[in-house]
Design goal:
The protein has seven helices and 28 strands. The chain is of the alpha+beta class and about 400 residues long. It folds into four domains: about 5-15 and about 170-310, MoaB/Mog-like domain (Molybdenum Cofactor Biosythetic Enzyme, Chain A, 3-Layer(aba) Sandwich); about 20-40 and about 145-165, Molybdopterin biosynthesis moea protein, domain 2; about 50-130, Molybdopterin biosynthesis moea protein, domain 3 (Molybdopterin biosynthesis moeA protein, domain 3, Beta Complex); about 320-390, MoeA, C-terminal, domain IV (Beta-clip, Beta Barrel). The structure holds ligand LQZAQKY5 and molybdate ion (MOO).
């Protein structure tokens, strides 16, 4: 059995070179920017007022000073003249500051009668002007790789980038295996259950910017598995669920090997998730997840998510760890890295009492996987521990 870190390193060696495509800005949210993009314009393109008020000369600002209003500058409509001594323009937020003016007095600090304004007694030194290029300048870059969040999309829009180079969304074939499985909505026989991991994993993948494709459930016999694995061959990544352990009906490794799979590793010193397998089948990376529902989804977080991020050109990094104080004491850990389903609260992190890898109710109630290294000694409440937010 290899360590989680070693398994992840071997998995990253299977990551294919990401491919780029261009998409409309509206479709770029959540995708990974694949090339640096460069602003073709400056923002704001001119010194702009940040408030509604009057534009005038800073040197003339003093208590009770009077100015003549000679025009108006609004957003989208500049004032074409020049503001001279003793003059001002009405100005609104976002408007270009007129020639000659270098200060905006907010209207709350002004009394206006006809074309004349009188300043109040406490104007302050803030000019209320956003300099040209205060946000960004032509030539500034948004650097790749980067998963584009809503603020990034707004920034690209402001830079006038209508089409965005992004990594192609990896197509991921998900193959559930087992005679006991039926799809949600179907009527299970007396010995059957509903395929659940499949859907949890598809949801994880969709949230990572991949395109999950559910294959028909493969039955626990070689022809069915072989047919299903052959169907998966056009994907960028094949994920199988179940049939990974040592039982008589656990056939995935054997059938995949028969089809020419080059195995990178099988079995990882972790809990849950021990019978994890990975390799390449027909040139396509393949990850064989254990069937137990929590095992499959924990492996989804610890292995599939970093892999799919790397497939989109993001750095090859393990799931990010956070730290929190333990709310309760814990006994020592065994030889496998333990990903304990846990809850964060005001007094720290608490692992659930029940850690069986079949319990989806416990996983659904968890917001953290408390990570315990192999042979981690007993811990007392208050000690800092690492966790993966989920
Ligand atoms: N003698 C041993 N037995 C087992 C070992 C072992 O080391 N020695 N390892 C255990 C561990 S740990 C795990 S994890 C499981 C993994 O088993 P498989 O990957 O072969 O998975 P299955 O046997 O096919 O299924 C296990 C369990 O999960 C249910 N399942 C499977 N697929 C789905 C799905 N898509 N949705 C919902 N539930 C699913 C399945 O019905 C079984 O209950 O092996 C242990 N055994
Ligand atoms: O490793 Mo299994 O995944 O413990 O249930």
């Amino acid at each position: 059995m290899i360590s989680v870190a070693e398994a992840l390193a071997q998995l990253f060696a299977l990551v294919p070179e990401p491919e780029t495509e261009e998409v409309a800005l509206r479709d770029a949210a959540g995708r990974v920017l694949s090339r640096d993009v460069t602003a073709a314009r400056t923002q704001p393109p001119f010194p702009a007022s940040s408030m509604d008020g009057y534009a005038l000369r800073r040197a003339e600002v003093e208590p009770d000073a009077m100015f003549k209003v000679i025009g108006e500058a609004a957003a989208g409509h500049r004032f074409d003249g020049t503001v001279g001594p003793g003059q001002c323009t009405r100005i609104f937020t976002g408007a270009p500051v007129p020639e000659g003016a270098d200060f905006v007095v907010i209207q709350e600090d002004v009394t206006r009668r006809g074309d004349l304004i009188t300043l109040g007694r406490d104007i302050g030194g803030k000019d209320n002007i956003r300099p040209a290029g205060g946000d960004f300048s032509a030539g500034d870059k948004v650097a790749a790789p980067r998963r584009l969040n809503p603020a990034d999309i707004a920034l690209l829009a402001a830079m006038n980038i209508a089409r965005v180079p992004v990594a192609q969304a990896p197509s991921v074939a998900i193959l559930a295996t087992g005679d006991e499985l039926v799809m949600p909505g179907e009527t299970p026989g007396p010995d059957q259950i509903i395929a659940s991991n499949t859907f949890g994993l598809a949801a994880q993948l969709a949230a990572l910017g991949a395109q999950p494709r559910l294959l028909p459930i493969a039955r626990d016999n070689e022809p069915s598995l072989r047919a299903a694995l052959t169907l998966a061959g056009t994907a960028d990544l094949i994920i199988t669920i179940g049939g990974a352990s040592v039982g008589d009906h656990d056939l995935v490794a054997g059938v995949a090997a028969g089809l020419g799979m080059e195995q990178s590793f099988y079995k990882v010193a972790m809990r849950p998730g021990k019978p994890l397998m990975a390799g390449r089948l027909g040139g396509v990376p393949m990850i064989g997840l254990p069937g137990n529902p929590v095992s499959a989804l924990v492996c989804g977080t610890v292995f599939v998510a970093p892999f799919v991020r790397a497939m989109q050109g993001l750095p090859m990094e393990a799931a990010r760890l956070a730290a929190a104080p333990l709310a309760v004491a814990m006994p020592g850990n065994g030889p496998r890295e333990h990903y304990m389903r846990a809850r964060l609260g005001e007094d720290g992190i608490t692992p659930f009492d029940r850690q069986d890898s079949s319990l989806l109710t416990v996983l659904a109630g968890a917001d953290a996987l408390l990570v315990r290294p192999p042979h981690d000694p007993a811990r007392v409440a208050g000690e800092m521990v690492c966790y993966i937010p989920i």
